[in-house]
């Protein structure tokens, strides 16, 4: 056999015995999952520009720590979803609603500030609407991609900025939403009424997950809801004596959040049975955030009730806005060092807090099943 032919035979043998198992590992069989894309649904905790694109720009000093300019995030810098993108080695997710300079090659972000699971809250972009946007995104992407394939002499640069149709079923679908169902509920009804609405909130959530599954989504990464009673504005707005726990959070509000999380956990047990091909990881965001607040001092933060930007005078004034209320001028500028505060603006976490939380959740220590994010395709 001549050397060239021998090399070819050896290569074929190599691919036959070694190549296939390597491909399988690459697809998530044994090693890491290598999700090709991420689709995120949520509220301001993971909005990377949606609400800013749709309504008013989130103003400076938002973005001061990391981006150096307002970046559509209600934060001084990066959000947990940004640290997830870094971990998975993707560019930061662009907001679906953002029409300028966006790239959806590795996913899209449907999260928008103020969103709740059920319609009729602070924002029109409730979860069901976000999922409809995703379905439209998927069908238009598929149409455009196939047209570019069949006519591959034109518009090729566009291809580098759109998702691959065959990757929708390999992508990671993330959810971080429910906090506004609680906050809006507390503002407009009693805590007991909010508690009674939990089954309906979760039914609506379940429908959204099932819709994504029907569209081919298989890998789900679900953040439960955080300790809403530990947000500075909740604490400052609490007027019930005895309603503050040992670390300074509002007890009753947190109890409702925990009840929602208990029922969410049960729902996901049920969904794992009903959607046999789904791999669902539940992240106990509540415990991660609560742990951070309880360890504020030892982790280098000031009191959990402090925040860096915006103000509270019995009502909440936005970070970055100069506001005149009854003749009094409020300049809502930022503090000198946002990294000393868990809360950026009384409602949203600072970049430093987001980094701490991301560090603690991404290795799987708050996950059920306890897998790190790059193994979430193996969750059973
Ligand atoms: C502003 O003044 C009006 C009239 O005195 C009062 O009803 C209202 O509560 C005040 N608003 C705030 C936010 O203090
Ligand atoms: C995950 O990371 C956190 C923060 O670095 C660390 O405290 C924890 O022990 C880690 N857990 C696991 C299971 O690796």
TrEMBL record:
<protein>
    <submittedName>
        <fullName>GDSL esterase/lipase At3g27950-like</fullName>
    </submittedName>
</protein>
<comment type="similarity">
    <text>Belongs to the 'GDSL' lipolytic enzyme family.</text>
</comment>
<dbReference type="Pfam" id="PF00657">
    <property type="entry name" value="Lipase_GDSL"/>
</dbReference>
<keyword id="KW-0732">Signal</keyword>
<dbReference type="InterPro" id="IPR035669">
    <property type="entry name" value="SGNH_plant_lipase-like"/>
</dbReference>
<keyword id="KW-0378">Hydrolase</keyword>
<dbReference type="InterPro" id="IPR001087">
    <property type="entry name" value="GDSL"/>
</dbReference>
<dbReference type="GO" id="GO:0016788">
    <property type="term" value="F:hydrolase activity, acting on ester bonds"/>
</dbReference>
<keyword id="KW-0325">Glycoprotein</keyword>
<dbReference type="InterPro" id="IPR036514">
    <property type="entry name" value="SGNH_hydro_sf"/>
</dbReference>
